[in-house]
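Quick one:
INPUT:
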């Protein structure tokens, strides 16, 4: 069942004589077909340079009158670009948790609209298209529309759309305050650039993703272009090149990627000795772990959830640094970033047994059906057992709260994302590190 209808009048000149009649007829058809379930209706039109939004809406008022069943669920959205108008409508859809949308639009706009949708939406949304019965003057369209339906849009037109979207997203204000980066005093900042992100300072607006979400998924509502803009802002603030940014391809296992060698399909650890290359590991309860060797000038990052912890992903990353770059275990520094703490994290009893074998102190209320688990402590024990010096590991055992950066993500909703706390549509922060040029 269609939950929302978008009527795209963006390409139609505001002085077109039949636009009011066209809109009236379209709304009339919607109202007749929606007597039981009235969907939300959005009318998208172009706000001409120098005109006021109010004036644009007033021009359409005669066509909007009389549709009582749609009245409260109908909104006119005027903007100077399709990207701005469509992104505004996306926010309205997300506020109402709507996902099934019909778009009524001129035939010549269909392929163009599909490009905008591919960039601004994810697979969470379902779209169907219906032709708006109107003959448009092609010179009123902002992008050449000589192609026939079904043909691929010319690459130069796609580039124009991508540029428009990027410029619009760059113009948006940051949400939830300034972008904040947590840094460890253990990693020398004269050699390495590093940090752990928090959730502030980005443009993601969906509550569980707001605002500096750094991961896009087909199962979430934040598209890749928004995550890319968040990353651009992080890169500007931190001082790294977003074009030389490499994030692990999470598999919740222990494979490690060596930069410069064949990249595995999936891996949870990554290492390099190349300058100016930024490595990153995500975390939204799982631990983003950073590794630095100031002697051999090598670094790494790993994603360590309960599975990766048990599989030894942190020591696998350390071993890769030793074997590839000749690092000495006593020189490697390891920092555990924000992650779910033993105060909040529970696992079924059978899984808790595995952590109990590492150290009984990794489990609290062991005899319960779902004991509390300390994946940080387990990570430290495995690292120390592998030869990392205890003083070269920074985690939540730091007593000085001014130095502590291993916060519990579930306990701090204002600072961090948490899958455990927020459910399936959760945001993601990262730990990142690079060797300075």
């Amino acid at each position: 069942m269609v939950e929302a209808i978008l009527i795209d009048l963006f390409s139609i000149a505001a002085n077109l004589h039949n636009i009011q009649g066209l809109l009236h007829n379209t709304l009339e058809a919607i109202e007749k077909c929606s007597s039981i379930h009235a969907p939300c209706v959005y009318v998208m039109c172009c706000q001409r340079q120098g005109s006021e939004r109010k004036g644009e809406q007033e021009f359409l008022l005669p066509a909007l009158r009389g549709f009582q069943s749609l009245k409260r669920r109908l909104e006119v959205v005027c903007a100077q670009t399709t990207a701005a108008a469509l992104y505004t409508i996306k926010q309205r859809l997300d506020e109402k948790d709507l996902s099934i949308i019909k778009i009524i639009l001129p035939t010549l706009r269909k392929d163009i609209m599909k490009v905008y949708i591919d960039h601004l939406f994810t697979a969470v949304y379902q779209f169907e298209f219906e032709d708006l019965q109107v003959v448009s003057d092609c010179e009123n369209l902002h992008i050449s529309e000589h192609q026939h339906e079904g043909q691929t849009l010319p690459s130069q037109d796609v580039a124009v759309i991508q540029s428009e979207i990027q410029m619009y997203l760059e113009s948006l204000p940051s949400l939830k305050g300034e972008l904040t980066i947590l840094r460890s005093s253990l990693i020398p900042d004269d050699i390495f650039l590093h940090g752990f992100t928090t959730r502030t300072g980005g443009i993601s607006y969906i509550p569980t993703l707001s605002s500096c979400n750094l991961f896009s998924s087909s199962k979430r509502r934040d598209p890749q272009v928004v995550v890319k803009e968040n990353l651009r802002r992080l890169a500007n603030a931190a001082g790294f090149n977003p074009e030389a940014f490499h994030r692990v391809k999470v598999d919740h296992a222990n494979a490690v990627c060596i930069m410069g060698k064949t990249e595995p399909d999936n891996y949870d650890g990554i290492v390099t000795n190349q300058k100016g290359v930024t490595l990153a590991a995500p975390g939204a309860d799982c631990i983003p772990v950073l590794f630095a060797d100031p002697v051999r000038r090598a670094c790494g990052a790993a994603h360590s959830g309960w599975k990766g912890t048990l599989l030894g992903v942190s020591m696998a990353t350390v071993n890769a640094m030793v074997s590839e770059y000749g690092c000495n275990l006593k020189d490697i520094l390891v920092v555990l970033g924000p992650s779910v703490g033993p105060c909040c994290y529970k696992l079924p009893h059978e899984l808790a047994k595995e952590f109990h074998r590492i150290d009984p102190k990794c489990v609290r209320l062991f005899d319960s059906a779902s004991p509390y688990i300390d994946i940080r402590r387990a990570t430290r024990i495995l690292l120390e057992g592998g030869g990392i010096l205890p003083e070269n590991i920074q985690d939540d055992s730091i007593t000085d709260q001014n130095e502590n950066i291993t916060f519990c993500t579930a306990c701090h909703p204002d600072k961090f994302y948490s899958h455990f706390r927020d459910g399936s549509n959760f945001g993601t922060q990262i730990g990142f590190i690079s060797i300075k040029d």
